[in-house]
């Protein structure tokens, strides 16, 4: 039933997304989880605590922010599952944990902005999806940033929650989303969060291990179906470069995407005014263009449909 739930949730989100009117009316699960994280950060991450005390407080915060949403999800899914067609209702809730449509929309907006408004418009559009300093980016860097974000968020925002929905039902999906949101908010190496967010960052690395590898494989498979993409080079890039990324997970989708498109992604980047050295993913061109963003989107959609079909086939086999 969990695999079927993941399949149906992917179909619901693919067809309808999460409407803006619903966000304005009641918010979004990530927003609700974010409020809980902010509350715990304010009350448990006090400047008077030592680094060890902050680390312990961060572990306690992680248990609360994963446990509370998961418990709520368990109660709701149990109640709904007892109803006729209850799995459809649970799938509608599960679809809110996925971002197939919104991710593609935000990345496409970067290509459109570059084509219609030039570099300044492209910088504004890419600043909505990446954390690096947009004013430091030339046009090729804006395009690379958009493609890197597409690659990483395909893993974190779609494959991983779908995987955990399939493995643990709505409880698994919600627990994953809570932990992943915590990493994005407090899992940074800053004076305030390096100790307090240590547990969130390490836990997020762990729970993203299977999905990041699966995402790389999906992109390699998709490259075999997309005209102009190179599946063999995508696989070579994964084998050569994935393990050299500073993240234990991001290198898999980034290297696969880079190799498939003949690009060199990642490398040195500026975050918050600081230069971050990273290994290149892929050994192709650095001069990416808006056309490459659109090629990356075709690869993304193909990989996404392969994943949906895989969940559907697995659900049918298990039935």
UniProtKB/TrEMBL annotation:
<dbReference type="Pfam" id="PF03186">
    <property type="entry name" value="CobD_Cbib"/>
</dbReference>
<keyword id="KW-1003">Cell membrane</keyword>
<feature type="transmembrane region" description="Helical">
    <location>
        <begin position="297"/>
        <end position="318"/>
    </location>
</feature>
<keyword id="KW-0812">Transmembrane</keyword>
<dbReference type="GO" id="GO:0005886">
    <property type="term" value="C:plasma membrane"/>
</dbReference>
<dbReference type="InterPro" id="IPR004485">
    <property type="entry name" value="Cobalamin_biosynth_CobD/CbiB"/>
</dbReference>
<protein>
    <recommendedName>
        <fullName>Cobalamin biosynthesis protein CobD</fullName>
    </recommendedName>
</protein>
<dbReference type="GO" id="GO:0015420">
    <property type="term" value="F:ABC-type vitamin B12 transporter activity"/>
</dbReference>
<comment type="similarity">
    <text>Belongs to the CobD/CbiB family.</text>
</comment>
<dbReference type="GO" id="GO:0048472">
    <property type="term" value="F:threonine-phosphate decarboxylase activity"/>
</dbReference>
<comment type="function">
    <text>Converts cobyric acid to cobinamide by the addition of aminopropanol on the F carboxylic group.</text>
</comment>
<comment type="pathway">
    <text>Cofactor biosynthesis; adenosylcobalamin biosynthesis.</text>
</comment>
<feature type="transmembrane region" description="Helical">
    <location>
        <begin position="56"/>
        <end position="76"/>
    </location>
</feature>
<feature type="transmembrane region" description="Helical">
    <location>
        <begin position="82"/>
        <end position="99"/>
    </location>
</feature>
<dbReference type="GO" id="GO:0009236">
    <property type="term" value="P:cobalamin biosynthetic process"/>
</dbReference>
<keyword id="KW-1133">Transmembrane helix</keyword>
<keyword id="KW-0472">Membrane</keyword>
<keyword id="KW-0169">Cobalamin biosynthesis</keyword>
């Amino acid at each position: 039933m969990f695999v079927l739930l993941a399949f149906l949730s992917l179909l619901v989100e693919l067809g309808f997304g999460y409407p803006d009117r619903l966000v304005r009316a009641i918010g979004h699960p990530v927003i609700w989880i974010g409020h809980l994280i902010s509350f715990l950060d304010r009350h448990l991450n006090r400047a008077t605590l030592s680094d060890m005390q902050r680390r312990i407080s961060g572990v306690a915060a992680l248990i609360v922010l994963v446990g509370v949403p998961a418990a709520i999800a368990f109660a709701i899914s149990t109640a709904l599952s007892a109803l006729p067609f209850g799995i459809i209702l649970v799938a509608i809730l599960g679809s809110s944990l996925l971002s197939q449509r919104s991710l593609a929309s935000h990345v496409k907006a970067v290509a459109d902005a570059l084509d219609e408004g030039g570099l300044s418009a492209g910088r504004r559009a890419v600043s909505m999806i990446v954390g690096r300093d947009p004013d430091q980016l030339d046009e090729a860097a804006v395009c690379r940033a958009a493609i890197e974000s597409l690659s990483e968020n395909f893993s974190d925002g779609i494959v991983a929650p779908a995987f955990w929905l399939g493995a643990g039902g709505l409880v698994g999906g919600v627990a994953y989303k809570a932990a992943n949101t915590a990493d994005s908010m407090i899992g940074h190496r800053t004076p305030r969060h390096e100790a307090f967010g240590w547990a969130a960052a390490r836990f997020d690395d762990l729970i993203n291990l299977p999905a990041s590898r699966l995402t790389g494989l999906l992109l390699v498979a998709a490259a075999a179906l997309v005209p102009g993409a190179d599946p063999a080079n995508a696989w070579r890039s994964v084998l050569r470069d994935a393990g050299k990324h500073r993240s234990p997970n991001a290198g898999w989708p980034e290297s696969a995407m880079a190799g498939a498109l003949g690009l060199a992604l990642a490398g040195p980047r500026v975050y918050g005014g600081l230069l971050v050295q990273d290994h290149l993913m892929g050994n192709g061109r650095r001069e990416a263009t808006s056309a490459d963003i659109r090629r990356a989107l075709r690869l993304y959609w193909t990989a996404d449909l392969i994943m949906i079909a895989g969940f559907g086939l697995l659900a049918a086999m298990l039935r």
